[in-house]
User: Fold these one by one.
Assistant:
Number 1:
Amino acid sequence: MQKKLIGIAEQGLFASAVFISFLLVFESKIAIPVWLQPIGRMHPLILHFPIVILLLAVVMEVFRFNKANSMAQSEGRTPESPAVTASLPEFYRTFLTNLLLVGALLAAITVIMGLFLSKEDGYTGSVVQWHKWTGIGVFYVATLIYWSRKKSWYSPAIAQLGAAFMGLMLIVAGHYGSAITHGSDFILGPIAKNKTTEPVDLQQALVFNDVIRPIFEQKCTSCHNPDKLKGELALTDVESIRQGGKTGKLFIAGQPEISLLVKRIHLPVEDKKHMPPLGKAQLTEDEAKLLSLWVKGRAEFNRKVIELPVTDSLRIMAVAMFKPAEQVEPEYAFDAADEETVKKLNTDYRTIAPLAKESPALAVNLYNKAMYSPEQLKELSPIKGQIVSLNLNKLPVKDADLRYVGQLENLQKLDINFTDITGKGLSELTPLKQLQSLALSGTKTTYADLRSQIGGFKNLKTLALWETELTDNEIQQLKKANPNIQFLAGFDGDKSEPIRLNIPQVKNSSTIFNQSIIPQIKHPIKGVEIRYTTDGTEPDSLKSPVFGDKIVLTENTRIKAKAYKSGWLSSPVATFSFYKSTHKPDSVNLLMPLNQVHQADGANTFFDHKLGTFSPNSPAWANNWAGVRKNDMVLVSEFKKPVSVTSVAVRTMIEPETGIFPPEAIEIWGGNSRDQMKLIGTTKPSLPTKKSDPTLTEIECKFKPQTVSFLKIVAKPVVRLPEWHSNKGNRALLLVDEVFIN
């Protein structure tokens, strides 16, 4: 380098040392603006350069002290004196000096980027702190070596000690950096996985410890552990999982559709909120389903797998993961079918596959209702001895078609759910001596059919009768007469405990209406009775009215509904809000900006009849939530023809743990011109407490009737979060998705 350039670089090195010290001293008071965050995120890109350069430089620095140079120093000459340096090639000396200077400067840039990056959410924990301070140490040691190497006291021993210390610091900093990105067990993970472990016995397996926890450990805990608390969330122990993280509780027991855990794993992979993040090992389809089912089943931590109902989807999937203490592989007396024959019988609407690897047993599935014909069953004759499983679910199978099924001599499992059979043709199946599982749900099978023919199924173990014409009493009679058969008809086959109904569903295309609306609340299971309330109380099965199709709503109404059916546990309570919105302005505009993250569709957001839900940061819902934090939300609406108004309601999200609060106050201004509006109404809603649950609610401001051509709606965010909040003293985020003018 030219002397002038070297001088500038040395000044930059000194300035970097001062700036880094400043960042460290005032770290707790510094907030990194959004435009600087991309610089911080370049930290992983740059950090490899100073590592290589500094390692090379310190090794060369040690070799600068060869035997001749050491002797010269013992005679009182410094390593950089003319007599000593003359023995070194000029290129070596110049290259080494410049290399140290460049390495130290790059280390400074890397440290500054890392400090910027550490201010973003999720960079907490001991691993991050170790990486941070060892990285800072690398910079200061490199700077110290550069400035000390020309001093008279700088000896070969000091150079060797500095090189060793620098190498150690680089290795430690790199190790902790890799632990942040890949997890602390990344290096030894393959060895650990290959260690022999005792298989879990199904009889002792716990749903959480043996099914759910392994998913967290493999896919989540590298970022969510006490050493690296991404989002202030740890998934390493039960208490931390229950507590949740910075964005709130991880799950709402029994409600996967609004649980943060389930919503994050189902976001598009490219979404920055998707978990695990892009670049990490992703959840398999089965793993994602297991997590959803666990939350749906109330996210219990101490329940055994075998304590779940035998028809429970989580149990069915979990059972497949465990081997009994002494598992006996099924043996079949028949030979495998001809491969060419199987290949020929496979079509777009019929799949035939081995039941297991190297097994002669075959599983057959038929698809496409429009393409079905009995001929598809008849064509299976060449492999009738190898078929052990046949799925005809939801196909137009008739009683007469069962004569082809009855020829499958080794059939063990038959699914004819929701087919057109009446039960009269069940006699065609009695030759199936190996049949163990028969599914007749959704068919017109009658009690008389089963009572007369069930005795012919000598090895039958399970019989599914969901949604048939059989009454509970008739099923009980069949159970009593056939104790060896498990009947699946809304009951737990182990304990005879009813299964819980899922919640009712609203079928209206929108719950926002102009003058009136007939709410359409349905349930997917036939024969379910829905009871409801509109006064905020929970519906019961005796006093609450039965929901019907003639209910008309003319005002804002919140309906709570539960589903009931004999032989089942009632569903959880479902809450549906219906909103009246009489007036839609002809034009609308915002006087103050929305925050950068929650732009939604600008001013049009508030009257598009699209309601938001939780996860406001997800692009799937981004168009539904408009937000402000640093300023008021000020909306001006214009009506070409004057309208009479008596209230304005603002629908907002409240999620206290994440700092999303209702407005501190709402002001309504009105008038006949944009420049001459007067205050016609105000309201100050009560603020949530520390234990308040997340909710979506409308805040209404009522006033005396006013005829206006212009309305200005001012919603003021909370200026200072309360003392109990983790971000106390800061401004709250205000989110609004819809405004109702009546």
Note: The CA atoms of residues 398 and 420 lie 5 Å apart.
Number 2:
Amino acid sequence: MRVSGRWFVFSILVGIAVGIGAIVFYLLGQMVVRYSLGEFAGYMPPVAGGERAFFGEPDTPFRPWMIVLVMTVGGLVSGVIVYWLAPEADGAGGNTVIDAFHNRRGVIRPRVPVIKTIASAITLGTGGSGGQEGPIALVGAGMGSWLGTTLGLSHRDRRILLAAGMGAGVGAIFRAPLAGAIFAGEILYSDADLEADVIVPAATSSIVAYSVFTQILPQGTRFTPLFGRELHHTFSSPIELFPYAFLAVLLILAGILYVVTFERFGVWFRQLPIIPHLRPAIGAALAGLLGMAMLYSFGGDVRALAVLGTGYGTLQQTLMESAAVGVPLLLSIALVKIVTTSLTIGSGGSGGVFGPSMIIGGCLGAAVGLAFHEIWPSVVAEPESFAVVGMAGFFAGVARAPISTIIMVRALTGDFGLLVPTMLVTSLTFVACSRWKLYRRQVPTRMDSRAHRGDFIVDVLEGLKVRDVYEQGRKIILIPEGMTLDAIIHCLAENNQHYFPVVDAQERMVGIFTDDDVRSYLFDDSIWSLAVASDVMKSKFVSVSPDDDLNTALKRFTSMNLDELPVISPDEPGRLMGMLRRKETITAYNQKLMEHKQAAAEG
């Protein structure tokens, strides 16, 4: 993509919109927590070191079983809102964005960001196990898509704004603009590929969104990492890599368990013989019951409730002093968090998968660190460092995003001393988890994406001109701009032409329409004699000249998903010389490719 001034402006607009959206999402989530869990259950989940509560503490005494009721009601309200108004806003949100990029020309309905904001705030605020990245990614992507549609941009450009919005949302809510930009380009693919065109727009949008979002935070914490500034670990000896490699093995097994459980619960909920509106309530109730089981199993220790909500408070203590949490509780949180997240999101609840992945990876890493500290204290002196590495390694494997995850965890913790072990663990989990991924809509590489259909054959077409390919003697029916719709319909019925150029009195082309454009009028014969060709045609059309090469032609085919392009005379503007068909271009490509293969074989 050629970076220009207009993209700078577009990216700033997306960043401002997403930054404001992140503020609304953040405050709404806190408000729901305060006036649902806080008011009725007397429970305010502890937050990360860099977060602050905006709505105060409740006076209600702690009533654990009310948490289950609040979660059930929250799941019901969220489910009704989502499945009534925007069913595509259910679940994690990341899959919806990835699918829109690859398969829907970057289109997300304008109502989706609004519905996702409300539903996610309710799901997470009432105790549903999930993260913030999925919802805010969909909210940001929806804003980028809406702006691209409003500005009349091409499908390709709208996809870029969609991805920029996604990156801006993640960069703002986690205060990690660089990670948000890389995440936007990396999360679209499951193999080691990157959507390079979105990086610069996403970086600009992330910086702006981050700057806007941090204005609501207290002055002293605006640029504080989510988990504070106190995390400073070091990597001192290559021998430490052996315990880290063992951690990677456990993270791989846990990642496979997470993906399989997540998918199985999703299938199970979709097969329930009830309306989908009720499924999130069932998932939330079951997750709440598991939370109560954890609470009472550990003698009322509220840290066990990290299996509900975001769990950031318990993770904060794990990162600071994992020995105070203990191996049994850490392992239990990691395993049960897999189930509660699968219940919450698999049932259609609105939340992300990155937050739970941090809890699972962090707690599992801390447990491994504590175990090695007991048996090998001379090598593993800081068990908490394993929690930091575990956070990155776990999500990198199941989300197929190693680079952005390393940057993200570094930004969240402010801890930059563990780069080498983090790279080792994320590389191992990324390679080993290739068959298991949380984002089912990811495609392996750009070559597998419909967004790049045709991008990888243009080099073969260099040197071929449009004049060498299009059928110059083919008879094309021209439609006068004053021809009535009645006559057009009869004309369509008598031939197999698909694209119809519209010409003025001097036979200069002024527009074009397809038989699909006319079909919408077939059931209203009252306007057949009133409407004319100029009412049906598209006056802004894409064309080529005989001197254009097929690289240019193919880009215009793919940018608008067209099957034919008008060939216009460069010397007489508006004079139609013929129509270039996509299949003719592909035929020329195949022929040229065979020539290259034969030349290579002979050489």
Note: The mean pLDDT is 89.
Number 3:
Amino acid sequence: MTVTLDQLFSEILMARERVYAVGQPTPLQRLPAFNDDFEIWVKREDLGPIKAYKWRGAYNAMAALTDAQRASGIVAASAGNHAQGVALAAKSLGCKATIFMPRSTPEVKQSEVLRHGGEMVEIQLVGDTYDDAGLAALAYCDEHQATYIHPYNDPATMGGQGTLADEIVMSGQGAFDRVYLAVGGGGLASSVACWLKKFWPQVKVIGVEGVDQASMKSAIAAGQPVALDYVDVFCDGTAVRKVGSNTHQMCSQLLDDIVTVTNDEVCHAIRMMWENLRVIPEPSGAMGLAGILQDRAAGHIQAGERVLTVICGANMDFAQLSMIARKAGIGSRKRRFMRVHIPEGRGTLVNFLASLPEGISIVDVQYGRVAGDMQFPVLGLIGSEDQYHQLDQHLSANGITSQDVSLAEDVGYRIINYSPELFERVLFVNIEFPERAGAFLEFMSKVSQLASLCYFNYAYSGERVGRALVGMEFASDADRASCEHLLSQLEGESIRSARAVSDETFYRLTGRNV
């Protein structure tokens, strides 16, 4: 049955009488980053009972069932947050639930499902994608005559999600001019847009999808739900190959626009959340803010407008933080990786780094000496658009060739190509230095009088101490001995410590014995 706007509005009304049996309203909070430009507010669904909004739809859909339907067994398929909502509802309503999840589901989401559901929940890990889990769940329902709780396309599920929009209206912080909502299957966007446009007809509701997850944008363009050939899973909470028929119809009518954002833009939004609110959402939870920042840069948001987004979840595997930190910029400054062409020779890399325009931060260096008169170090930089423009002018004026390699696979995996057979009298050293502007270059400027760099591996970690693995080669044994003496003198001054690598590590790096 196709849901209508009036039916969806009624579903939200009825859901208001059910969902607060297991959770309380979540607050709105202002993001202070743009006080002098426009207001950004966030709806803190990360503070709900499962650290995501999906408890609302899952509980409402299950509470609306008859006793007989619940007794037949509940089945769901989910990459994580919907599963937690079903688990919470199963324990509260006293019914058994079998939840199908992809084998790749982060451990934190699996453990939370079991914590919320206890003995009322069984997890079945099937396939590598949400689609695989969904097909297995539907087959299980047919075999056992169980009741399936859809994560987004069922009107009762959509109605439950819409209760957060009621809280927005009742908060007293509205009206808002623009609302940006992450879109996966489309249940959140459908219900929130339905409710807000009823009370604030002038509000613009913008859906936000990942560039390689844009199933709703594709469906609207095609006039019907279509299956994507490929779905990126970095933002795993919105990684849906094909949206629902109901959500497609609602979003087609209600969304004023859909913007697509990159994973890097999402990481930048996560960093902004941390810097402004000390909140770390999961990637999908920051997609709305990423959309706001993109539209602001494009000039679509006017000064004085009041803008809202929803932090729709904060359930993320801790290990993912390291990737997010690498991809994120700092404030308004963006990350760029650049491969430069510089002549082979003592001091050329150090001199090049020292010549970079002020204000640009070096956060990554990947370099290994290869055969030939030219060398090709990769530099990870953080800077503003103006600073990058100055850098491009500097490179052009000095005849230096470079390429943007921010998306190159070898750079992303930090694969440093080098030819150890070229190294002579080589010394590999672990360097610790104060993580402040210019500290490492001061050290290398002194060392470069004695040594030539043949290997350089450094990545900013966010600590007060920077660490680099540096390979140096020498024209004579006397130069090497002088450098080792210099390193001991510089400890406690330019650097914190300098330790030669172990014999075993040296062998792995060079294929030679010390």
Note: The two ends are 75 Å apart (CA to CA).
Number 4:
Amino acid sequence: MPIPTGSRTAAFAPWTAVADDATGPGSAAGPANQARLTGLRALGHDLADTAYVADEAVVDADRLRLGDRSYLAAQTHVTGDVTIGADCSVNVFAAVRGRVRIGDGVRIGASTSILGFDHEFADPDVPVRLQGLRTRGITVEDDVWIGAQVVVLDGVRIGAHSVVGAGAVVTRDVPPYAVAVGNPARVVRDRRTGRAPEPATRARARALAEVLGATAARDVPVLLDRAWDATAEAFVDAAGVAPTVRAHCDAIELGDLVGLVPGRLTAQEHRERLRRAHRDGREPDDYHVLCVGHALDLLGDRLPREAYARWSSLTPTEVVARLDSLDWVEHAWHAGAVVDKLGTALTWALASDDPEGEAARETLLGWLLTHRDPGTGLWGSPRDPRESVNGTYRLVRGTVASWGIQLGGGDAVVDTVLRHVRAGALDAATACDALDVVHLLWWARPSARGYREAEVADVAELVLGLAVAAWTGDAGGLGAPFAPRGTEMTVISGADPTRPSLQGSEMWLALAWYAADLAGCADALGYTPRGIHRPD
């Protein structure tokens, strides 16, 4: 049955005029439409024989090209230099103006404006109407659906097979296969995958993570081989320094990242050395609670009770007295480090089913809950953000982060840490400075629930860039230094902190994981820390 194509019907429903079985005077082939096409061609326009232009359409273009089976519905307005491909529809009350290139199979909804020009208005002393026009043009590629009441502004390219939702204001390019909605329009998903696209920041972060992951996989085995002192039969943090237990633990942590047991020792020999390390008296015994316990854990062993008992055996009264005696105003960094050792000792007691530490653990949690600054979300005085940020990181890592306990207050933590970053915390940052920032942002994320998410992602990308630069910079040697050049400080190994070291390498690779996870691309690194900087 032929589709009815009376002049009014075709004008407002022109798909009836260009249908394959459309016949009659109101069809594209009908005399009225052919007369309009002839008249427009006489003005220099290029119109296919099967195109349709409603009588109520206003064509005031310098040049119009209209392809096969394409139509301009009633009350459409076309001006400027416009090319429209085959099988396109420009529906009622739509405007296509300026320099516009439209591919094949494009649907343009009612009352949509595609504006391939703009008014100049830079000079406030000259009326806008006298400042002239500029045009960059608009391109709409093939198989695009632009909904009703959309505005597409000059300079935009809309990629093939994409969809622009009704009422959107398109101010920037839309990639192929995208679904874009809103004012200004934003891409909400990819038609091929159904998933939201990866933001540009995340894409840059992923690229950095891929570089660092590949570099670590290549360099860490060589770095560990060079860190083995054959004479001492032990690991050194960097060339020219004595072997340390910390270096041994860092070597095991780094080896775990790339799936190897380092050095000339078997896993059992590593375990035996580390289990007796706290007895040698050459290094701070407290620190062994931190590094030795996690290294043994990676090797499938447990820290001996005698190594942590003096902490885990504290009574509740002793725990409170010890915490109250710490200087949380001027030296929150040191105070947090003490809590880190206490909390880690209690972690090993818990892992070993040692009931002695449970009372101390409950007391520590209660003290922390009642002494946290609700304004900053941290522990320590807000007068010195570096002290409180670093101290809070140490405290959190050794206690609630290891125990899987959420304390809330993520918004305050995010605000404080981002303020710390804006004040220059990551300018010439050491590995410790960068780790404090990304770990706390990561820890705060569950309770922050997307709060200032874009700013957090920017910081994550910045830190990934610092990690890549630290590893591939000009410090000399292989790996990453703890601190950038020009830093005046010492670290536990006694090595120059600005030279590549096991400590610096392990910390930068670990903190890069937190940054990458904040940016949604931790998988690109190819590793997850499982030792002292583990995320669970």
Note: The mean pLDDT is 90.
